[in-house]
Write a structure and sequence with these properties.
It contains 4 helices and 6 strands. By secondary structure, it is of the alpha+beta class. It folds into 2 domains: 41 residues; 122 residues, Nuclear Transport Factor 2, Chain: A (Roll), CATH 3.10.450. The protein has a 6-stranded mixed beta sheet with strand order 2-1-6-5-4-3. A hairpin with a 2-residue loop joins β4 and β5. It starts with a helix and ends in a 5-residue tail after the last strand. 10% of the residues are buried.
C-alpha cells in the first residue's frame, strides 16, 4: 500500500467516524425530545363543568370531613351497579346501605391519590377511567389501604350527572 492510499484510508475512516458521531448526536436529541414530550403530555381532564362537579363531590364525600354516604345516595343512578375485584356485584340499594354502615362505623378515606387514565364524553354519557390509591382511617386508627383501577360510567339526566356503573380492580400496593 502506498503512502497516498494510506492517507485516503485514514481520511475516509475519520470522515466515517465524524458521520457516526453526528448521527449519534441526532439520535440522542430525538430520543431526548421523545421523553420530554412524553412527560409533557397532559393527563386527561374532565372538561364538562357539571360532570367535574359531580365527580369531585362524590370523591370528597368519603374523605375525612366529607359529607358521607348521603352524596352517593343523591348521585347514584337508580340502576347503579358496582362490580369490585371481579367478585362483589352490588346494586344501588345494597351498596348505599353498606356505605352507610361503613360511614357510621367511623371509616373514612384519609388520603386519595388519583391518576386519570381516560375521560370519554359522548353526549349524555361519560366513561372515566383512573388509577387510585387510598389510605383509610377507622375509629381504631389507620387501616390497610387500597390501590386499583376504576372505570366509572356516568349518565346525564335532567341536567344532572349520575353515576351509573363502577368497575374496580385491585392492584398490588407498593407501600
Amino acid at each position: 500500500m502506498q503512502e497516498g492510499d494510506t492517507k485516503k484510508l485514514v481520511d475516509s475512516n475519520i470522515a466515517h467516524d465524524e458521520k457516526e458521531h453526528r448521527m449519534s448526536k441526532v439520535i440522542y436529541v430525538i430520543v431526548s425530545l421523545i421523553f420530554l414530550f412524553e412527560g409533557a403530555v397532559a393527563a386527561p381532564e374532565i372538561t364538562d363543568a357539571s360532570l367535574r362537579q359531580a365527580v369531585d363531590e362524590l370523591s370528597a364525600s368519603t374523605l375525612v370531613g366529607g359529607e358521607g354516604w348521603q352524596a352517593y345516595d343523591r348521585l347514584l343512578h337508580p340502576e347503579y351497579s358496582r362490580w369490585a375485584m371481579g367478585e362483589v356485584f352490588e346494586r344501588r340499594d345494597k351498596f348505599v346501605k353498606s356505605l352507610e354502615a361503613w360511614w357510621n362505623y367511623g371509616m373514612r378515606v384519609a388520603r386519595r391519590d388519583v391518576e386519570m387514565v381516560a375521560v370519554d364524553i359522548v353526549g349524555d354519557l361519560a366513561i372515566i377511567r383512573y388509577k387510585t390509591t387510598e389510605a383509610f382511617v377507622s375509629p381504631d386508627g389507620p387501616v390497610e389501604g387500597f390501590s386499583g383501577y376504576v372505570s366509572n360510567i356516568w349518565i346525564k339526566g335532567d341536567n344532572t350527572w349520575f353515576l351509573l356503573s363502577a368497575e374496580i380492580s385491585s392492584i398490588a400496593r407498593s407501600d
